[in-house]
């Protein structure tokens, strides 16, 4: 399956304009092109499908429009903001949250939810950390909501403050947004502001239209239309020299080209706010993503480099920072800022490599032959003279495949490299990087 990208005139599903795909085989495009939902890679979540050359009747178009309308959230963002205002006026004893509907309830609504589970006595502190109140939408194929561990979130925030940024465009980073919002409301001198762009509309219950935009990062769709787009544009305008950075932590589903295309549009929006100043510059960005997507990200953003910092999550069984025997997280920060400026915590073992001019993880040894710190996963890698590069410690050189790989592998040639890691011998679904 290959993505042909956002196409002009594409039909829409409830998640905005669909993306154009084509089936590929052996690297060649094959068969009819079709449109499918940009946001949901699981047909169960959104089954939108249309052949590119399909004639759609007026009746079906009308039915589709009606379907899209009826699949929008029950309350508008505006209504949710008004509801919140009323909610905070209630005494704590009357503040209920329906866990089934994931919704703050006003007393007149209790009845309707009477056979649902409630959380009661919702405090102001709870309202300030919605990511704790809401359950994470973990369904892998769509939301893949994996929340930063506090340590990683705090690290990111301190880092961008130290770098001098005062505005954060939080794209799919509700927990970072929430940390900024809550500090801003509690600490007088704290002057950082954040705008959250996320597809999870539940957050509209807690944030105003200036703090949250319902947004799809796979097709750059603002559900709130031109007004929301304008909010974002205004936010990106660096009034009083307040510098902006975009931080994003997208689902790792693999539509890197769709993400890159949206992020380029956000960069263009930023560039457009400043006539002369930004002409040839890029909006500073942290793109948080697994290390095995490095080459894919660099394809689209050659100015980016990958930092060694391992981003940890709260609710991710694999990437959690354990008390004993930490599982190493494969998630990294990709950035277009100068690597030497990204200071990583020495107390966690990171050190500065003066040759590479960047912080590296403790196990990452500088290879004299490659003349760089070559480890991607934090373990010490070894140099293979035949491959002329450093490889994972567990790999061996296979003379059949003429490259280094796992000792246990089948020497079959598929001709075309894996979509994820670029190596031959397996397809994306069997990529060892993903397991
Ligand atoms: N680590 C981050 C959360 C990352 S999980 C934090 O703690 O703040 C991925 C986030 O992207 C989730 O908030 C999810 O709702 C959002 N998301 C998933 N698909 C999206 C899409 N198509 N458009 C915009 N946001 C999306
Ligand atoms: Zn309910
Ligand atoms: Zn080497
Ligand atoms: Zn080798
Ligand atoms: Zn692979």
Automatic annotation (TrEMBL):
One of its GO terms (cellular component) is cytoplasm. SMART domains: ZnF_C2HC (SM00343). GO terms for molecular function: nucleic acid binding; rRNA (adenine-N6-)-methyltransferase activity; zinc ion binding. PROSITE patterns: DHHC, ZF_CCHC, ZF_GRF. Residues 13-55 form the GRF-type domain. It comes from the Eukaryota. InterPro entries: Mlase_EEF1AKMT1/ZCCHC4, ZCCHC4, Znf_CCHC, Znf_GRF. Residues 418-433 form the CCHC-type domain. Pfam families: N6-adenineMlase, Zn_ribbon_GRF. It is found in: Cytoplasm. Keywords: Cytoplasm, Metal-binding, Methyltransferase, S-adenosyl-L-methionine, Transferase, Zinc, Zinc-finger. This is ZCHC4 protein. It comes from Panurus biarmicus (Bearded tit).
